[in-house]
Amino acid sequence: MVEAAFALAARALEVGLHYRSGRVVERAGGLRRSLTTISPPKVARDFDERLHGVYRRSRRSGCCQIRRARSPW
After folding, report:
1. Residue 56: its pLDDT value, please?
2. Of 12, 8, 34, 32, nearest to 23 (Cα)?
3. Rg of the chain's alpha carbons, rounded to an integer?
4. Looking at the whole model, is its pTM more than 0.85?
5. Is residue 73 scored above 50 in pLDDT?
6. C-alpha–C-alpha distance, residues 7 and 60, integer Å
7. What is the per-residue pLDDT across 4-17, written as a single tens digit (0 to 9) for each?
8. Within 13 Å, how many C-alpha atoms sit on residue 38's CB side?
9. For residue 21, what are the β-bridge partners?
10. Which terminus of the chain is more exposed, N or C, with fewer CB under 10 A?
11. What's the confidence (pLDDT) of residue 46?
12. Is 21 helix (H, G, I), strand (E, B) or coil?
């Protein structure tokens, strides 16, 4: 069950990056934040690395790689 959830989140992350959607990327990261375990499974650690790579690249380039979602207020 956890593997399927992270497979879907990884796909959402890829789509969010493709369309430069901060909202989609943040929602994908939200799944990871919702999993609270002492020892996360391998799929969660792999997803962590992917998310870290996304943010590391955007900081290194000096600009935001994805558009941030606007606040509805």
Report:
1. 76
2. 12
3. 13
4. no
5. no
6. 27
7. 999 999 999 999 99
8. 0
9. 67
10. C
11. 95
12. strand
